[in-house]
Amino acid sequence: MQYWGWLDSAFIVLISTYLVLAPYSKVEESFSLQAVYDMLNHGYADLELYDHKTFEGAVPRSFFGPLLISVIVKPIKPLLDKYYPDPTELNLQLLVRGVIGLTNGLSLIRLRRSLAASCALNSKYISVWFAVLQYSQFHIVYYASRSLPNFLALPFVNHALAYIVKGEFVPGVTWMCFTGVVMRLEVGLYGCCFALMSVLLGQSSLITTLGGMVAGSLVGLGTTLFVDSYFWGHLEFPELTAFIYNVVEGNSQNWGVEPFSAYFFKYSRALFFPPIVPIMLVKGLTKDPSQNGKGNTIRTICISSLLFVFVMSFQAHKEWRFIIYAVPALTVVGANGADLVVSQFGSSIPNRLLSLLAFVLPVVSLGTSLFMGYVSSFNYPGGVALANLNERLLKLDQTAGLIQQEITVHMDIPACMTGITLFGQLKPESLTNFKVNYDKNENRTQLLETATWEDYNYVITDLDSEADNQYLPKALVDTKLKDVPGCNWYKVDVVQMFAGVQVAPFVEYAKEIANDGFQLCEDIISLDTTNIKKVLDDSIILKDALYVYEKVCNDVI
Length: 557
Hints:
Belongs to the glycosyltransferase 22 family. It is a multi-pass membrane protein. It comes from Kuraishia capsulata CBS 1993. The chain crosses the membrane at residues 6-24, 206-227, 267-286, 298-316, 322-342, 354-375. This protein folds into 2 domains: 26-376, no CATH class; 381-495 and 546-553, no CATH class. It is 58% helix and 8% strand. It contains 25 helices and 5 strands. The protein has helices at 6-21, 30-42, 64-73, 77-83, 90-118, 126-135, 139-143, 149-164, 169-182, 185-200, 206-232, 238-248, 262-271, 276-284, 297-312, 326-343, 349-376, 381-397, 413-417, 444-447, 450-454, 474-480, 504-515, 517-526, 530-539; strands at residues 406-411, 435-439, 458-461, 487-501, 540-553. The protein has a 5-stranded mixed sheet. Strand 1 (406-411), helix 19 and strand 2 (435-439) form a beta-alpha-beta unit. The protein is globular, with a radius of gyration of 26 Å. The termini are far apart.
């Protein structure tokens, strides 16, 4: 089971399925995604055209990850343009995300193979259990193709873990320190936890471990100073700047604070649902299956990961993605526990019950993951709204006798936060009769001026002009949809997003299956998803989220 298997293939297919199911992105992904767009379309020299020159963000972020992705995608882009032409560049966005997803997928497969190699003599099935437990989880699989900085860093962490599971702690810690300095500082903290525990548990010597940490950090420092200072146009160390802004100055609390226990009692439930990995952790610590002769590899992995989560808990602002790096490591320990439980199936009643859970809960986890993936596809109304408007503009472009030669589309903040990227804009060459300008102006002073709105022809906003907006400040309304003398705004599209789930359709479907089980068998055999898709659609509650308006002046449509 050391080499590529059908579970690995299914894993890549699952990542690809989520990518196609939800092709758009959220605001947290925007910096890296826009940076890749700029590198692919403007090259590496004309930096004044880059998106970050206009929208810098609260703190500078590293260009290292986007640079690596662009280097991989750039040779493929001409082939994509030739054989899969698109009026927008959403195909290119899918390719970019596909590369990210493949990188994350291959890094986890490498981790599984390293686990198989290190435990081949003592436990040949532990890597299979790792695949079953890890590949059936939702968060890592769904977000594997997304350009969140954490998931650009995750392949490097998994690469480091692949060394660590073989007992090679110094290379692992070196890679984590490098990644922490260049991409995400918390990865460096994770590396420090591994360094500390590997020394205390006799896995590595203090001198060699410190040497690896220093080497990784220095190479990382040189890399980030070289790459990021170039793209930002001044001496820049993004992770240090972000640390000062978010932690030292405490600005991260502006995005919300949570209690110390949130990672352990809130986010762990979400990351490991159902909790098969936590259930197997204690059993996984009882025996180390590695054959590196050090005897404490599994314990070091577990304690280091829990210590990392513990230290991260001191930061008041918490998000599950800040501790995502520990999930594969803890899953390794859980896989060891599952393997031990199943191998001792007949030894006791508790082991039989745990063995049953080891087989059943991953199936539940996969089913839950698939449902959550489908539900999550309704969380990107901005991307859908822009795609719908682009279709409208393409049809308008084919209309004879056009009076208007230039069109400006204004997209407000909620729209830009939920799926709108530069990849979604129409390419100039896809239009023959007019030019489309896409506007993301956030300046409230300018948006309160009528002259600004005179230039807008279409608006994508979260303001419903037909709703009762009397309780909203007029200034707020005017920044979202301001009246223009002699013109009217007409609502031409409404885009919905996820609002909740109702269980009644599932209950009804279960009753139908109970009455006619043959129908379910026929659907499975014929791969007919019509019935289950109807149940899923009926179970999802949607709400109006974004509205598209067209400005019509002087009664001319």
